[in-house]
Amino acid sequence: MDKAQQDALKKAAGIEAAKLVTDGMIAGLGTGSTVRFLVDELGRRVQEEGLQFTGVTTSRRTQEQAEGYGIKIVDIDDVDHIDVTIDGADEVDKNFNGIKGGGAALLWEKIVATNSNKIVWIVDESKVVDTIGAFPLPVEVIPFGAGHVIKRFEAKGYKPVLRLTAEGEPVRTDENNYVVDLHLGRIDHPQALADDLINTVGVVEHGLFLNMVDKVIVGDPNGPRVMTNSNK
Protein backbone atom coordinates (compact mmCIF):
# COMPACT_ATOMS: atom_id res chain seq x y z
CA MET A 1 0.00 0.00 0.00
CA ASP A 2 1.45 3.39 -0.92
CA LYS A 3 1.36 6.41 1.36
CA ALA A 4 -1.52 8.09 -0.49
CA GLN A 5 -3.72 5.00 -0.08
CA GLN A 6 -2.73 4.67 3.57
CA ASP A 7 -3.49 8.36 4.19
CA ALA A 8 -6.92 7.94 2.58
CA LEU A 9 -7.71 5.09 4.99
CA LYS A 10 -6.42 7.09 7.96
CA LYS A 11 -8.51 10.08 6.90
CA ALA A 12 -11.68 7.95 6.57
CA ALA A 13 -11.10 6.50 10.05
CA GLY A 14 -10.45 9.97 11.46
CA ILE A 15 -13.64 11.40 9.96
CA GLU A 16 -15.66 8.44 11.28
CA ALA A 17 -14.21 8.86 14.78
CA ALA A 18 -14.97 12.60 14.79
CA LYS A 19 -18.69 11.69 14.85
CA LEU A 20 -18.19 10.46 18.42
CA VAL A 21 -17.53 14.01 19.64
CA THR A 22 -20.73 15.92 20.40
CA ASP A 23 -21.65 19.29 21.92
CA GLY A 24 -20.53 19.82 25.48
CA MET A 25 -18.16 16.87 25.58
CA ILE A 26 -14.68 16.75 27.04
CA ALA A 27 -12.63 14.86 24.48
CA GLY A 28 -9.09 13.57 24.71
CA LEU A 29 -7.20 14.16 21.48
CA GLY A 30 -4.30 11.82 20.78
CA THR A 31 -1.15 12.22 18.75
CA GLY A 32 0.04 11.00 15.37
CA SER A 33 -0.68 10.92 11.67
CA THR A 34 -4.20 9.44 11.93
CA VAL A 35 -5.22 11.83 14.72
CA ARG A 36 -4.19 14.79 12.56
CA PHE A 37 -7.05 13.90 10.20
CA LEU A 38 -9.42 13.61 13.20
CA VAL A 39 -8.47 17.08 14.44
CA ASP A 40 -8.85 18.52 10.92
CA GLU A 41 -12.42 17.15 10.81
CA LEU A 42 -13.25 18.37 14.32
CA GLY A 43 -11.87 21.79 13.38
CA ARG A 44 -14.10 21.82 10.30
CA ARG A 45 -17.14 20.97 12.45
CA VAL A 46 -16.28 23.71 14.96
CA GLN A 47 -15.98 26.29 12.19
CA GLU A 48 -18.79 25.13 9.87
CA GLU A 49 -21.30 23.44 12.20
CA GLY A 50 -20.73 25.35 15.44
CA LEU A 51 -19.63 22.22 17.35
CA GLN A 52 -18.63 23.18 20.88
CA PHE A 53 -16.48 20.84 22.92
CA THR A 54 -13.44 20.98 25.19
CA GLY A 55 -10.25 19.16 24.28
CA VAL A 56 -7.45 17.66 26.37
CA THR A 57 -4.40 16.84 24.27
CA THR A 58 -1.69 14.19 24.62
CA SER A 59 1.05 16.31 23.08
CA ARG A 60 2.01 19.89 22.43
CA ARG A 61 1.82 19.39 18.68
CA THR A 62 -1.82 18.21 18.84
CA GLN A 63 -2.59 21.19 21.08
CA GLU A 64 -1.13 23.62 18.53
CA GLN A 65 -3.09 22.03 15.67
CA ALA A 66 -6.37 22.09 17.62
CA GLU A 67 -5.97 25.65 18.86
CA GLY A 68 -5.31 26.72 15.27
CA TYR A 69 -8.94 25.73 14.54
CA GLY A 70 -10.27 27.56 17.58
CA ILE A 71 -10.86 24.35 19.56
CA LYS A 72 -10.81 25.09 23.29
CA ILE A 73 -7.97 23.12 24.92
CA VAL A 74 -7.63 22.79 28.71
CA ASP A 75 -5.13 21.16 31.03
CA ILE A 76 -5.99 17.63 32.15
CA ASP A 77 -5.98 18.74 35.80
CA ASP A 78 -8.67 21.34 35.02
CA VAL A 79 -11.26 18.63 34.21
CA ASP A 80 -12.62 15.93 36.51
CA HIS A 81 -13.11 13.39 33.71
CA ILE A 82 -12.78 12.90 29.96
CA ASP A 83 -15.81 11.55 28.08
CA VAL A 84 -13.91 9.93 25.25
CA THR A 85 -10.28 9.86 24.13
CA ILE A 86 -9.55 9.22 20.45
CA ASP A 87 -5.99 8.26 19.64
CA GLY A 88 -3.96 6.29 17.16
CA ALA A 89 -2.05 3.07 17.79
CA ASP A 90 1.05 1.56 16.24
CA GLU A 91 -0.23 -2.01 16.56
CA VAL A 92 -3.36 -3.69 17.94
CA ASP A 93 -4.27 -7.38 18.14
CA LYS A 94 -7.58 -9.24 18.38
CA ASN A 95 -7.34 -9.27 22.20
CA PHE A 96 -7.24 -5.45 22.15
CA ASN A 97 -3.63 -5.32 23.29
CA GLY A 98 -1.82 -2.43 21.66
CA ILE A 99 1.53 -0.74 21.26
CA LYS A 100 1.67 3.04 21.27
CA GLY A 101 4.44 5.59 21.44
CA GLY A 102 5.88 5.63 17.93
CA GLY A 103 5.50 9.40 18.16
CA ALA A 104 7.14 9.49 21.63
CA ALA A 105 3.96 10.72 23.39
CA LEU A 106 3.18 7.48 25.25
CA LEU A 107 3.32 8.90 28.79
CA TRP A 108 0.86 11.72 28.19
CA GLU A 109 -1.26 9.38 26.05
CA LYS A 110 -1.52 6.87 28.89
CA ILE A 111 -2.32 9.54 31.50
CA VAL A 112 -5.15 10.90 29.33
CA ALA A 113 -6.39 7.39 28.48
CA THR A 114 -6.56 6.22 32.10
CA ASN A 115 -8.69 9.27 32.99
CA SER A 116 -11.18 8.63 30.15
CA ASN A 117 -14.62 7.01 30.35
CA LYS A 118 -14.17 5.61 26.85
CA ILE A 119 -11.12 5.00 24.69
CA VAL A 120 -11.26 4.76 20.89
CA TRP A 121 -8.31 4.09 18.62
CA ILE A 122 -8.23 4.96 14.93
CA VAL A 123 -5.85 3.00 12.73
CA ASP A 124 -5.36 1.97 9.14
CA GLU A 125 -5.67 -1.76 8.46
CA SER A 126 -1.88 -2.30 8.43
CA LYS A 127 -1.82 -1.73 12.22
CA VAL A 128 -4.12 -4.70 13.00
CA VAL A 129 -1.96 -7.76 13.75
CA ASP A 130 -2.25 -11.29 15.15
CA THR A 131 0.45 -10.79 17.80
CA ILE A 132 1.93 -7.44 18.82
CA GLY A 133 5.68 -6.88 18.91
CA ALA A 134 6.84 -6.45 15.32
CA PHE A 135 6.54 -2.70 15.96
CA PRO A 136 9.36 -1.77 18.38
CA LEU A 137 7.96 -1.23 21.88
CA PRO A 138 8.72 2.29 23.17
CA VAL A 139 9.78 2.72 26.80
CA GLU A 140 10.16 6.21 28.30
CA VAL A 141 13.17 6.40 30.62
CA ILE A 142 14.70 9.13 32.74
CA PRO A 143 18.00 10.36 31.23
CA PHE A 144 19.89 9.90 34.52
CA GLY A 145 21.24 6.36 34.47
CA ALA A 146 19.59 5.52 31.14
CA GLY A 147 22.69 3.60 30.05
CA HIS A 148 22.24 1.22 32.98
CA VAL A 149 18.58 0.66 32.14
CA ILE A 150 19.57 -0.15 28.54
CA LYS A 151 22.19 -2.64 29.80
CA ARG A 152 19.56 -4.29 31.98
CA PHE A 153 17.24 -4.58 28.96
CA GLU A 154 20.09 -6.06 26.90
CA ALA A 155 20.72 -8.69 29.56
CA LYS A 156 17.06 -9.70 29.37
CA GLY A 157 17.21 -10.07 25.58
CA TYR A 158 14.88 -7.12 24.91
CA LYS A 159 17.13 -5.73 22.13
CA PRO A 160 16.91 -2.08 23.27
CA VAL A 161 17.83 0.85 21.01
CA LEU A 162 17.99 4.43 22.28
CA ARG A 163 15.85 6.52 19.91
CA LEU A 164 17.87 9.27 18.22
CA THR A 165 17.02 12.36 16.18
CA ALA A 166 18.31 12.83 12.63
CA GLU A 167 21.20 14.78 14.19
CA GLY A 168 22.14 11.80 16.34
CA GLU A 169 20.91 13.30 19.64
CA PRO A 170 18.57 11.35 21.94
CA VAL A 171 14.89 12.05 21.18
CA ARG A 172 13.29 13.98 24.04
CA THR A 173 9.65 13.51 25.05
CA ASP A 174 7.36 16.38 26.15
CA GLU A 175 8.59 15.57 29.69
CA ASN A 176 12.23 15.76 28.49
CA ASN A 177 12.88 12.03 28.93
CA TYR A 178 14.52 9.53 26.55
CA VAL A 179 12.76 6.80 24.55
CA VAL A 180 14.24 3.30 24.32
CA ASP A 181 12.67 1.07 21.64
CA LEU A 182 12.62 -2.68 22.32
CA HIS A 183 12.94 -4.78 19.16
CA LEU A 184 11.15 -7.88 20.40
CA GLY A 185 9.65 -9.24 17.17
CA ARG A 186 6.65 -10.68 18.99
CA ILE A 187 5.26 -10.29 22.51
CA ASP A 188 3.63 -13.51 23.70
CA HIS A 189 3.15 -12.48 27.34
CA PRO A 190 2.35 -8.75 27.26
CA GLN A 191 1.13 -8.46 30.87
CA ALA A 192 4.27 -10.07 32.30
CA LEU A 193 6.43 -7.80 30.15
CA ALA A 194 4.42 -4.73 31.19
CA ASP A 195 4.90 -5.61 34.87
CA ASP A 196 8.63 -6.15 34.41
CA LEU A 197 9.10 -2.85 32.56
CA ILE A 198 7.12 -0.65 34.95
CA ASN A 199 9.01 -2.15 37.92
CA THR A 200 12.39 -1.30 36.39
CA VAL A 201 13.83 1.71 38.25
CA GLY A 202 14.40 4.56 35.78
CA VAL A 203 11.45 3.58 33.58
CA VAL A 204 8.70 6.21 33.60
CA GLU A 205 6.18 4.41 31.36
CA HIS A 206 5.98 1.85 28.56
CA GLY A 207 3.93 1.71 25.37
CA LEU A 208 1.92 -1.43 26.14
CA PHE A 209 -1.77 -0.47 26.32
CA LEU A 210 -3.40 -3.74 27.35
CA ASN A 211 -7.18 -4.27 27.16
CA MET A 212 -7.72 -0.51 27.67
CA VAL A 213 -9.44 0.35 24.41
CA ASP A 214 -13.23 0.13 23.98
CA LYS A 215 -13.41 0.44 20.20
CA VAL A 216 -10.96 0.39 17.32
CA ILE A 217 -12.01 2.14 14.11
CA VAL A 218 -10.09 0.57 11.25
CA GLY A 219 -9.61 2.41 7.97
CA ASP A 220 -10.48 -0.27 5.43
CA PRO A 221 -10.66 0.04 1.61
CA ASN A 222 -14.38 -0.92 1.87
CA GLY A 223 -15.03 1.82 4.42
CA PRO A 224 -14.24 2.17 8.12
CA ARG A 225 -15.02 -0.90 10.24
CA VAL A 226 -15.32 -1.03 14.02
CA MET A 227 -13.78 -3.64 16.34
CA THR A 228 -15.58 -3.61 19.71
CA ASN A 229 -13.93 -4.90 22.87
CA SER A 230 -16.52 -7.09 24.63
CA ASN A 231 -14.27 -7.44 27.71
CA LYS A 232 -14.73 -3.80 28.64
Automatic annotation (TrEMBL):
InterPro entries: NagB/RpiA_transferase-like, Ribose5P_isomerase_typA_subgr, Ribose5P_isomerase_type_A
Enzyme class: isomerase
Record keywords, A-Z: Isomerase
GO molecular function term, any single one: ribose-5-phosphate isomerase activity
GO CC terms, sorted: cytosol
Pfam family, one: Rib_5-P_isom_A
Active-site residues, record numbering mapped to chain: 109
UniProt keyword Isomerase present: yes
Pathway assigned in UniProt: Carbohydrate degradation; pentose phosphate pathway; D-ribose 5-phosphate from D-ribulose 5-phosphate (non-oxidative stage): step 1/1
Record text on subunit structure and interactions: Homodimer.
Gene3D superfamilies: 3.30.70.260, 3.40.50.1360
Similarity annotation: Belongs to the ribose 5-phosphate isomerase family.
Reactions performed catalytically: aldehydo-D-ribose 5-phosphate = D-ribulose 5-phosphate
HAMAP family named among the record's database cross-references: Rib_5P_isom_A (MF_00170)
Name of this protein: Ribose-5-phosphate isomerase A
Gene Ontology biological process terms from the UniProt entry: D-ribose metabolic process; pentose-phosphate shunt, non-oxidative branch
UniProt function note: Catalyzes the reversible conversion of ribose-5-phosphate to ribulose 5-phosphate.
Enzyme Commission code(s) on record: 5.3.1.6
Binding-site positions, substrate: 31-34, 87-90, 100-103, 127
